[in-house]
Design goal:
- The protein is α/β, with parallel strands linked by helices.
- The protein has one domain: Rossmann fold, CATH 3.40.50.
- The protein contains eleven helices and nine strands.
- Helix 5 links the parallel strand 4 and strand 5.
Length: 272
């Protein structure tokens, strides 16, 4: 038995026989473990704060894509939850490659740990240009590409890869076509940003940051592994994260990116 097998949470059956049951397993873990729930609460609060900051008074729906086990709606009830497959707690079935949403009807699209599963990122961003109102946008949290992230993500999840040198964006352009590439957000939004903005001129990358809650994420076990620190240590771990926050670019495990649809300006308005 490998170390990964020993660390795996007993609630998470491997391999997963039913994708919906896996989502429900993860949701039960998220609801029952305060440490990992606190990590996701940080994600939710930060997403909402950046929504308010960058999308201002833009009207339209707030839609979470790839919601899976997410509890975002518990904190922000005006969010519409969705995934590519139905589940009892989700409101919509939506395919990010072909969103069943009216044109210019959305203020914000949210995606937590789902972007690297998108089979065609260019098609997704074309849908962003279609369904998001000018001034709105998409907020993504996905695996980061720092030193620790590259080391761990390449080894922890057998069903996914971490290939920063992938030759293309689409699933059929990956070296391993059978597994999702957890480095996809790096490839599209950082390495190939010039291509992204050239192909989708209505969009701009308005913000990017590394999430600093990696100590709690690691010791909580995330949604798949055993918790390695007592829940009572959560407060002390938060303090530690603040003290070592300058090291987040080396040790961070998730990053957050805001992609905004540019506001339309009247003809002759030359403002930058």
């Amino acid at each position: 038995m490998s170390l990964i097998d020993l660390l795996r949470a007993p609630e998470v059956r491997e391999p997963a026989s039913d994708p919906v049951e896996r989502v429900l397993e993860h949701r039960r873990i998220l609801a029952s473990r305060p440490m990992i729930r606190g990590v996701f609460e940080d994600f939710y609060r930060r997403i909402r704060a950046l929504d308010e900051r960058y999308f201002g008074a833009t009207e339209g729906a707030r839609v979470e894509l790839g919601s899976g086990s997410s509890m975002l709606k518990d904190y922000y009830p005006d969010t519409v939850t969705s995934d590519i497959m139905p589940a009892p707690h989700l409101e919509r079935v939506l395919d990010a490659m072909q969103l069943d949403l009216p044109d210019a009807s959305v203020r914000a699209l949210y995606g937590i740990n789902c972007f690297h599963h998108f089979p065609d990122p260019a098609r997704f961003f074309a849908e962003v240009e279609r369904v998001v109102r000018p001034g709105g946008g998409v907020i993504l949290i996905d695996p980061y590409f720092g030193a620790l992230a590259g080391l761990l993500y390449a080894r922890l999840f057998q069903e996914e890869t971490f290939d920063r040198s992938a030759p293309g964006w689409r699933a059929d352009e990956q070296r391993d076509r059978e597994r999702a590439n957890q480095a996809l957000s790096y490839v599209v939004l950082f390495r190939d940003r010039a291509r992204l903005l050239a192909e989708h001129p209505e969009l701009e990358v308005a913000h990017a940051e590394v999430m600093p809650n990696y100590v709690r994420y690691l010791l909580s076990g995330g949604l798949n592994f055993r918790q390695l620190a007592p829940t009572a240590a959560t407060g002390a771990l938060r303090v530690l994260e603040k003290l070592i926050s300058p090291a987040s670019r080396v040790f961070g495990l998730h990053h957050l990116i805001v992609v905004r649809r540019k506001e339309q300006r009247p003809p002759g308005d030359a403002r930058s």
